[in-house]
Design brief:
Blueprint lengths: L2 E5 L2 E3 L5 E8 L5 E7 L6 E6 L6 E3 L7 E6 L4 E6 L8 E8 L18 E2 L3 E5 L2
Parallel strand pairs: 2-11
Antiparallel strand pairs: 1-3, 3-8, 4-5, 4-9, 5-6, 7-8, 9-10, 9-11
Length: 127
């Protein structure tokens, strides 16, 4: 049974940092991704990581500012978000997918490819 629970969201100012945590029980060897959805927009992928943590993906908009990591012993996936911008404001979701991924370019970026979802955590960046 896969169960995903996000935490760590909040209200911050531009330039601040936040670390999101996804408690990801039952994900085993699954790919885990972070998605976000801003008001009036579709759900978009932010970052993803494979089981070993050796392969990661970042959306162009967050590359160099966000870092995804995974602690399989704790069944936890993290998203460290630095230099936050107003446009990072969204509900952030953790998701797990059953497809295999072990090389560059292997990640699926469509939400339809992810089988399990958490309830989301709000991140608001405001001055």
């Amino acid at each position: 049974q896969v169960h995903l629970v996000e935490s760590g969201g909040g209200l911050v100012q531009p330039g601040d940092s936040l670390r999101l945590t996804c408690a990801a029980s039952g994900v085993g060897h699954y790919v885990v991704g972070w998605f976000r959805q801003a008001p009036g927009k579709g759900r978009e992928i932010v970052s993803a990581i494979n089981y070993s943590g050796g392969t990661t993906y970042y959306a162009t908009s967050v590359k160099g500012r966000f870092t995804i990591s995974r602690d399989n012993a704790k069944n936890t996936v993290y998203l460290q978000m630095n230099s936050l911008k107003l446009e990072d404001t969204a509900v952030y979701y953790c998701a797990a997918a059953t497809y295999s991924c072990s090389g560059s370019g292997c990640f699926e970026d469509s939400p339809d490819e992810y089988d399990y979802w958490g309830q989301g955590t709000q991140v608001t960046v405001s001055s």
